[in-house]
Amino acid sequence: MARAQTSESACVHSADMGMRPRRRHHALVPRLRREPRSRIVGCASIGQTIRKAWRRGPVRQWWNREAASAFTPARARVRGSCIFAPVLPLRAIFPGKRVALRAPRVSDAPRIVEIRTRSREFLRAWVPVPGPDEFDVDLARARILRDRRDIRADRHYRFCMTLGEDGPVIGRVALTQVFRGIFQNASLGYWVDVEHHGQGFTTEGVTLALDVAFREIGLHRVQAAISPHNAASLAVARKCGLRDEGRAARYLQIDGAWQDHLLLAVTAEDWPAAPR
Ligand SMILES: CC(C)(COP(=O)(O)OP(=O)(O)OC[C@H]1O[C@@H](n2cnc3c(N)ncnc32)[C@H](O)[C@@H]1OP(=O)(O)O)[C@@H](O)C(=O)NCCC(=O)NCCS
């Protein structure tokens, strides 16, 4: 309150004194919005140790070389000790042969609630206990806004899988828990509308998501945790190139019980189109 009053009175004061309004500032805003925004994706979380070593010299070369060869995503730039990658635009659409991935839109809420509701029993055994925002359109809208903020913040990428580029949403494919720094990893998750399963759509959607992970947002590794009893999901993951890494005891709470899961993963080195 006090701050608002102060700035308001400052404006009045400058107008009274015949000063020019601060137009330069306003003129800059649209230009800044048009410019591609980028974020640090490499060595963002290197700690004091490396930062100190960086000042000493030789690590600078080592870090740049290692970082650039291992993690640099398409269109990224290495500046100093940091790798900058463009922020994924929310309007981006990643088309495949039959399905496409894109960020969820607020207008998707009724459709997402519709397919989630009719798939409730189909999904129950394999996905975490759903929250109320999966079955209520208003809460789903709020959740979509959160999903969009998460994409901009490089935290989670929860995509909608649509039939064609403009078709209805038929499922979700997500890269969540994005870790940067020396891990550059995300967890893969997916589900499809009960009326669209068994037609190869998820395999296509997951392939697109891995392409986004390695080519667009510069991840190095994508992992999935799948119940050993979930044959369809295991088939999808393996078809998409994830390899088995082992079994984790009581790993996730699904359908009210802590259940063992198989861990599968794929790294950029295995992805033919990933930048080297
Ligand atoms: C897992 C899931 C996303 C797969 O979606 P989908 O669109 O049916 O997947 P696809 O059609 O692309 O591929 C399914 C593959 O599983 C295979 N499959 C399906 N049921 C199977 C079973 N009982 N045993 C062995 N393979 C099976 C299919 O044959 C197919 O492989 P193919 O193309 O080589 O024949 C969907 O079943 C689902 O939403 N399940 C519930 C949620 C879930 O499990 N999410 C993953 C959590 S880890």
From TrEMBL:
GO terms for molecular function: protein-N-terminal-alanine acetyltransferase activity. GO terms for cellular component: cytoplasm. Residues 99-269 form the N-acetyltransferase domain. Keywords: Acyltransferase, Transferase. The keyword Acyltransferase applies. PROSITE patterns: GNAT (PS51186). Belongs to the acetyltransferase family. RimJ subfamily. This is N-acetyltransferase. It comes from Polyangium fumosum.
